[in-house]
Amino acid sequence: MYLISTSSKTNAYFIEQAKTVSQLLQMPYVPRKHQSVEDLLTTHHCAGALVVTKEGPSFVTKEGVPHQFHLSMAHLRLLEIDRGNIDHLLRAIGYESVTSVLDCTAGLGSDSAVISYGCSQLTRHTAIEGHPILGYITNYGFRHFQHKQPKVTEALRRIQLVICNYQDYLDQIVPNTYDVIYVDPMFENPVYESPQFLQWRGHILESKITSEIVELALEKSKRLVIKERKGSRLFKALPPIEMVGGKYSSIAYGIYERR
Q1: Backbone conformation region of residue 107, classed left if phi is above 0, alpha if psi is from -120 to 50, else beta
Q2: Which residue, 126, 133, 224, 253, shows the most beta carbons closer than 10 Å to its own?
Q3: Phi and psi at residue 234, in whole multiples of 5°?
Q4: Which residue numbers in the chain have pLDDT < 70?
Q5: Max Cα-Cα span within the chain
Q6: Which residues are 203's β-sheet partners?
Q7: Which domains does the chain have, with CATH numbers?
């Protein structure tokens, strides 16, 4: 269970904002009353808190570093695109001709940021996140983050984030709603040292790709792209028609297309 609160130095505006978020996410609002977040979590037996601050929403746990929206590794990837180097994910989705993309696992928003920035011709770009707090923070970033380069800010604003289970979303949409569907599930062997995910360990919703999900995705789109380790059981059990990735990288983007 999670709770909603404010920073210790707050005012009536942020308290009302926290109460609104509480209603939106259906999570209890708990007044801060000068207590530490750790004390609030212990008292209310919660695993984490979404804290409303003047810098934006922050996810806080007892053991992790607070998480607020940031571009993370996407920043370096955007710089490489500006230098004329096409990102491997962009190659996998067919960046030159794609007009609509569904990112089923938005997470911190890095991949969707790269897709939107590298494919400015997109007419529909939807990102799905199953964890309500992570989804709220990522969507806040898409809506409010200001980059020094206006075209990066514009790329973020083009992304429409939906908080739900992506399998439920796939069930509801009609065939050919998107040109490409992208999925980045939790790796079979997680990269535990990855700093941007440290505060989310044990909180991120895990999803395993099955043949049924692959079939469903290819009913709804022309192409499915899955990010995994090159030697993963997934790629061995469901071989993609092509894999895109760095020569010396253990990570690849597997491409599947409707027959």
Answers
A1: left
A2: 224
A3: -60, -50
A4: 64, 186-207
A5: 60
A6: none
A7: 2-60 (3.40.50.10480), 74-257 (3.40.50.150)
pLDDT number for residue 207: 67
- Give the per-residue pLDDT at 34: 86
Which residues fall within 8 angstroms of residue 27, CB to CB, at 6 or more apart? 1, 2, 3, 4, 21, 50, 132
CB proximity list for 95: less than 8 A, separation 6 or greater: 86, 118, 119
- Tokens at 129, concatenated: 């996140």
Residues 6+ apart with CB under 8 A from 201: 64, 192
> Could you give the CA distance from residue 208 to residue 72 in angstroms, rounded to a whole number?
24
Reported for 8-11, long-range contacts at CB under 8 A and 24+ positions apart, including other chains, are: 8/32, 8/34, 10/52
